[in-house]
Design brief:
about 150 residues; 4 helices; single chain; about 30% helix; 3-stranded antiparallel β-sheet; alpha+beta
């Protein structure tokens, strides 16, 4: 089911939001709700991933933007690492915005993205590394996997 909501210019953004794609501002304006801090982060993150939340393959009205502990989003497409790069953007944006993302099956043609808030310090269930920390950890543990691909 495709959303019938249309793109609109974003209202003024607070300094902590991502004005270029302004997902939270778009949700607030089009659904007339007040988002939770997590809802704001998720909407802005999805706005970045899909270059505008209005482009996201989701049913905007069915998302619980007011939840504070978790938000589930069903998407109607695959996620890619390079040519579509929305998977890479999702992962990098989640690290930059300090939110945990879990990808689960929702149906044969849909994926469920589960978002929960994290912080920069704390135990394993609270902590979320920065992009630099995640890359450093990956290179320390799996750097041997990196290869020079064939050159064009």
């Amino acid at each position: 089911m495709t959303s019938t909501l249309e793109a609109a210019p974003a209202p003024d953004c607070a300094p902590s939001t991502h004005c270029r794609y302004a997902g939270a501002a778009w949700v607030a304006a089009h659904l007339s709700i007040t988002l939770s801090p997590l809802g704001t982060t998720v909407a802005d993150l999805l706005g970045v991933v899909y270059r505008g939340l209005y482009n996201a393959p989701i049913n905007h009205q069915r998302i619980q933007w007011t939840h504070t502990d978790w938000i589930d989003v069903i998407i109607r497409q695959t996620l890619d690492t390079y040519d579509g790069n929305d998977l890479t953007t999702l992962v990098l944006a989640a690290h930059a915005m300090c939110v945990r993302v879990e990808v689960k099956p929702a149906s044969p043609r849909h994926l469920r993205l589960c978002f929960s808030p994290r912080q920069r310090g704390g135990n394993l269930t609270q902590h979320h590394p920065t992009i630099d920390q995640a890359v450093t950890h990956f290179r320390q543990n799996f750097g041997y996997l990196e290869q020079e691909g064939p050159q064009p």
